[in-house]
Amino acid sequence: MPEYLLVVPDKRQVAASFSRAAGSYDAVASLQREVGAQLLARLPSLAFSRWLDLGCGTGHFTRLLAERFGAGMALDLAEGMLRHARLRGGARHFIAGDAEALPLRDGSLDLIYSNLAVQWCGDFAAVLGEAQRVLRPGGVLAFSSLCAGTLGELRDSWQAVDGFTHVNRFRAFGDYEALCADSGLQVLALERQARTLHFPDLRALTRSLKELGAHNLNPGRPGGLTGPARIRALAAAYEGLRTAEGLPATYQVVYAVLCKSR
Ligand SMILES: C[S@@+](CC[C@H](N)C(=O)[O-])C[C@H]1O[C@@H](n2cnc3c(N)ncnc32)[C@H](O)[C@@H]1O
Fold it and tell me: What pTM, to 2 d.p., does this model score?
C-alpha cells in the first residue's frame, strides 16, 4: 500500500454511520460550525457562481454558501445526510457521491468548499486530483480537515487500557503539506490550529462523537461490546487529564486554500 494512503473505515460504514447520525448531528456540531465559519472567512473575496459543498452533511454551509453566491451544488457520501440537506435547500443538485471520485465534468466548478469531511478519505491524493480535474483554471479549493493529534487524550487513555485502535486515525499535518504541494494546485494557505473542547465526563464525550457519526469505525477496533471493566479503566485514565473546565478533547484542525493555475 503506498505510504500516503491512510487506513480509514470502509466507505459504506462511514456512509451508514453519518446517515444514522443525521437527525442528531446539528445539535452537537458546534465545533464543526465554528470551523466551517472560519473556513468561509478564508475564502478569497471573489464571486463564485459554480460552487460545490463537498461532504455537505446536513447542509448548514450549503445554505450559507447559497446566501453568498446563489444556488450551487452539494455532495455527500451519506444519503441520510443528504435528506436533511435537501430540506435546507441552497443547492440545485444534492448528489450522493464520493470525494475521491467526483461525478462531475472537468473544469465545471469555480469553488470547492469542504468543511471537516476529507479526514474520512483514505486517498487524499485522489481528492486533490479530483479537485484539480473539476475546477476551472483559477478555481479555488478551500477545505478544513483534522490531522494527527486529534482526540489524542482519548487515544492515550485507551492506550493505558489495551492495545486496540479505539480512535479514528488521522493523517499527519506534514502529509497534508506534502500532498498539497504535490497536487499541481497552488497552495495559497495551509495551517493547523488546535482547538480544545471540554466535557463533564467521558460519557458526554463518547455520546457526542456518536451523535456526530464520528465514533470509532476503524478496522482494528475491538469486536463486540466494550465491557464495563474496560470502560471504568478508561474513565479512570481519562480522569487524570481533568482540568478546571472538564475533560479535554483536542482537535487539530487543518485549514487550506488552494488554487488551480490559470
Ligand atoms: C463531520 S461531517 C461535516 C458535514 C458538513 N460539511 C458540516 O460542516 O456540517 C462529515 C461529512 O463528510 C461526509 N463524507 C465522509 N466521507 C466522504 C466522502 N468520501 N465523500 C463525500 N462525503 C464524505 C460524511 O457523510 C459527513 O456528512
Answer: 0.95
